Amino acid sequence: MKRYLKLIYVTACLLCFSTGAFSQDTKAQEERKARLEKEIAIIDRQLAENASKSNTKLADLNLIRKKVSNRKELVAQSDRQIKKINDDIYLTQLEINKINKRVETLTEHYSKLVLSAYKNRDARVWYMYMLASDNLGQALRRFGYFKNLSDQMKDEAQKIRAVKQELEEEKEKLSKMKKEAEALKAERVKELESLKKDESKADNVVKQLKKDRRTYEKQLNAKKKEVQALNKEIERLIAAAMKDKTSASSSSSTKKKTVVDQKLAAEFVKNKGKLPWPAEGVIVGRFGSHKHPVYNIVMPQNNGFDLAVAKGEEAKAVFDGVVSQVMVLPGYNQCVMIDHGDYFTLYCKLKNVNVKADDKVKTGQVLGTVDTINGQTQIHFEIWKGKTAQNPENWLK
C-alpha cells in the first residue's frame, strides 16, 4: 500500500514540474508575441500616415510584407501553443485517470479492512486471538497490531484523501488550460483574418507598382542613387578616419590615444551580440544586396539596416565612443558617426542632433530624434570594422 501511495506522490510531483515548465515556456512566448504585436502597431501607424501620399508605395510594400511576416509568425506561435496545451492536457489527463484508478483500488481495499474490523469488533475475539499465541513475543506483536490498526487505517485513508484533493487541483489547472486553448484558437482565427487582409493589401500594392512601373522606377532609381552616394561617402569618411590614425605622429600623446582606442575596440568586440539597439522599431531593410520585391532589379548594397520606428523615437549610441563627425547627406538628413577604436557606428536620418564632433558619448546616450523623410520614419544604422561593413544584426542583442 505504501508503495502505491509513494507512486501517487511521485506522479503528482511530476505533474507539478510539468506545469512549471509549461508556465516558463508560456512566458517566453508571451514576450515574443508582445514584441511582434508592438512591431505591427508601429507599421500600422506608418501606413496610416502614408495613406494620403502617392510616393510611398515602395516603402509601403516593405512595411506590409513585414507585417504579413509578423502575422504569420503570430499564427504559427498560436498553433504551437495550442498543440502544446492539448498535448499536456491529454498526457496529464491520462496520468490522472491512472492515479484515480489506484486510489479507487486502495479505497476499496481499506473499505474491506474497515468492514473486517467492524465484524470482529468484539474484544473477546481479539483477546482469545492473543491468548492463542505461541509465545509472549507473538502475543505482544498481535496486541500491537490490533492497537495500531485503527490509527493506521485512518492515517492511510487521510493520505489517499490528500492525494485525491491534489489531483482535483490538477484537474482544475487542466480546466484552465483548456479555456486558454479555446481563447488561443479564437485569437488565431482573428489573426488569420487580419493576415488575409494584409496579404490582399500587399497584392494590391504589387499590382499598382506593376501598373505604374515607369513612375515607380523613377523613384527607385532616385533611391538607388541615394544609397550609392551614401555608401561612397561613408566609405570615404571611414577611410579618411583610418588614414588619420595610421599616419599620426609617434608622440607620447598619440601613443596614449592608440592604447585607449585598442582597449575601446577590444571592449566593443567583447560585447558582440550584446549591444543595445539604436532605437526601438522594425527592420524593413536588411544588410546586404537584395532583389527588389516586385521588379527584377538587384538593389545597391545595404551596408547596415533600416529600422522603421514610431514618430519622435530617439536614436541612442550603442556603445561608448567619440563622435567622429556629424554630417548631412542627401536623402539621409543628419548622420552621426561614432568612433569606437577600430570600429565605427553610423546613425542616419536624424533631426535635432544633440552631439557634435569630438564629443565623448556613453552607451544609451541620446544622439538625436529620428526624422520623418518622405512619409517614412526610419533610422539607418551601420557598423564598420575598419573599412569593412558589418551586419548589425550579428552585433545587437
Tally of alpha and pi helices: 6
Summing up helix and strand content along with how strands pair, one would put the structural category as alpha+beta
The H/E string reads HHHHHHEEEEEEEEEEE
Task: State the domain count.
Answer: 2
Nearest-angstrom radius of gyration? 36 Å
In helices, the fraction of residues equals 55-70%
Uncertain segments: 1-12, 122-131
Mean pLDDT: 79
* Approximate shape: elongated
What is the number of E strands?
Answer: 11
Largest sheet: 11 strands, antiparallel
Strand residue content: 15-25%
**What is the rounded distance between the termini?**
55 Å
Question: How would you sum up this structure, described in words?
Answer:
This protein has 397 residues and is an alpha+beta fold. It folds into two domains: 2-211, no CATH class; 213-394, Glucose Permease (Domain IIA) (Distorted Sandwich), CATH 2.70.70. Helices cover 63% and strands 15% of the residues. The protein is built from six helices and eleven strands. Strands 1, 2, 3, 4, 5, 6, 7, 8, 9, 10 and 11 form an eleven-stranded antiparallel β-sheet that branches. A hairpin with a 3-residue loop joins strand 5 (333-339) and strand 6 (343-351).
